[in-house]
């Protein structure tokens, strides 16, 4: 029994160190872990990540490991997989995780467009996709995310224009879009973002004037437009 346990913990350790350094750090040997060994082994976070992000819609509560996937009951509320070497295109199925409040896929190697279906994530408060290789334009429909507070898309290859109805994201506090290839002008409805604190459009190809309506932004602390 003891040997079996040690062996299974050993193989768990090996598979985890292959999967993720952070697992290794936070992994504590615990008596209760014995029961969970099989489950965890079968459902590595990598598999959950691939299934949820790239399309198989696994969405089982065995993805709720509380390190990379936080859940309320069986609903996924947070996906935290920054700096995980994830590559490929985000699947449209991501829009099905309607309970999602935080999506942190920053510092990976994601390519392709931002999925249109992202506008279905009506509870989303934090969207961190900075430091990737995303391209295409930011879908106009992103402005349906009226609960969104932090939109961090800097350091990508995004092009096209700013979403037309930017100003509808009433809860936005941080809008960081620097170092992309976004063109066109800043929509004047940006003046409706009454909670905005930080705006960065640094290192893009915007033109036109800074809308006068931005003078209404009383919460604004930092503005980087050049
Ligand atoms: C884990 O995988 C093994 C072998 O592939 C299988 O026998 C077992 O039923 C699986 N366990 C769970 C909880 O899915
Ligand atoms: C998940 O999303 C895809 C693409 O948006 C859609 O075709 C599919 O019907 C959705 N599945 C469920 C279970 O909602
Ligand atoms: C998101 O990922 C970044 C690293 O890219 C990390 O510094 C940050 O703490 C993460 N934030 C959350 C809320 O997960």
TrEMBL record:
InterPro entries: Leu-rich_rpt, LRR_dom_sf, Plant_RL_S/T_kinase. Gene3D superfamilies: Ribonuclease Inhibitor (3.80.10.10). It comes from the Eukaryota. Keywords: Leucine-rich repeat, Membrane, Repeat, Signal, Transmembrane, Transmembrane helix. Residues 1-24 form the signal peptide. GO terms for cellular component: membrane. Its main location: membrane. It is found in: Membrane. It is a single-pass membrane protein. PANTHER family: LEUCINE RICH REPEAT FAMILY PROTEIN, EXPRESSED (PTHR48053), MDIS1-INTERACTING RECEPTOR LIKE KINASE 2-LIKE ISOFORM X1 (PTHR48053:SF126). This is L domain-like protein. It comes from Piromyces finnis.
